[in-house]
């Protein structure tokens, strides 16, 4: 199996701890992060405040939060693909 390495080209914070992610290969999907917020780790705990969660931004194509938490874009894409949550919109001609 070949893994396609990607970055995140854009992200948008949505209600209920979700991010709309557009990847560098054109795939896109919405990742619900409520599952990782159950983790009690010191990097995750601040994101339980939705105002903090919504401050997500990109650092060189990597989803990042002000506390320094970063998530691997390739793994995010693989997770979404495995769950059947990716789409690849075709540009209008």
From TrEMBL:
| InterPro entries (alphabetical) | DUF2442, NE0471-like_N
Sorted alphabetically, which Pfam families does this protein's record hold? DUF2442
Q: Which Gene3D superfamilies match?
A: NE0471-like N-terminal domain
Q: What is this protein called?
A: DUF2442 domain-containing protein
